[in-house]
Amino acid sequence: GALKIYDEPEGRQCIVCADPAEVVGEDNCNAVAQVIDVKTCEQVAIWADKCDPSEFGDVLVALCKYYNNAFLVCENNLAGSAVLVRVYEQLNYHNIYMTKELGRDGSLSTFKYGWRTDQQTRPLAIAALARLLKERVIKIRDPETVEELILFQVQITPQGTKKMSAPKGKLDDRVISLAIGSYVGNQQYRW
Fold first, then answer.
1. What φ, ψ does residue 127 adopt, rounded to 5°?
2. Which of 18, 32, 120, 126 could cysteine-pair with 173, CB 3.0–4.6 Å?
3. Long-range contacts: 120-129, Cβ < 8 Å, 24+?
């Protein structure tokens, strides 16, 4: 099935790192939730499948509650915004990562739920994951995550720029969810 549990939640404090699918039904896009123990930095569960934002919100809240009200870090780009509305407003789950957004003058303007992946934050997240892997801090148990990590590399975009991603026709949703969690985990828990 979509859910693989490697360790049960008893006595664990966890972070759930989520990358929503941007296009439902697209062959090369899954919604992915990685569950990482914040003390041991071990992958204790993973959920990966195709679903709409509302369903994914339900999955995330169920996973968070199962893992002792885990801290949720969900990408808020496109479909992620709908997922977060479902999680926060409709399912009333509030243990969610918030991003500080600055005004044009550099002053703090607002807080927004979720992680924004863009040209600035994507390399930061990937670098955080790379460091955890290089230093053997993070323990990955899911073979499909390992496979995505092996294939994840610098690709040349149609515009001729370089971007870390999976080769054409391959997936990188497990890597991106793990990268987002790695960055936030490092900030929150000093991995």
1. -65, -40
2. 32
3. 121/183, 122/164, 122/179, 123/164, 124/183, 125/176, 125/179, 125/180, 125/182, 125/183, 126/164, 126/179, 128/179, 128/182, 128/183, 128/185, 128/186, 129/175, 129/178, 129/179, 129/182, 129/183
* pLDDT per residue as tens digits for the range 52-105: 999 999 999 999 999 999 999 999 988 999 999 999 999 999 999 998 877 777
Distance from C-alpha of 54 to C-alpha of 110, rounded to nearest angstrom = 25
Distance CA 78, CA 61 (A): 19
Say which residue the tokens 């990358």 belong to: 19
d(CA 108, CA 167): 38
Alpha helices of the chain — where are they, by DSSP H? 53-66, 79-85, 121-134, 143-151, 173-189
Tokens of 131: 């460091």
Q: What residues form DSSP beta bridges with 16?
A: 35, 72
Query: By the 8 A CB rule, do 21 and 30 touch?
Result: yes
CA nearest 34: which of 52, 13, 19, 16?
Answer: 16
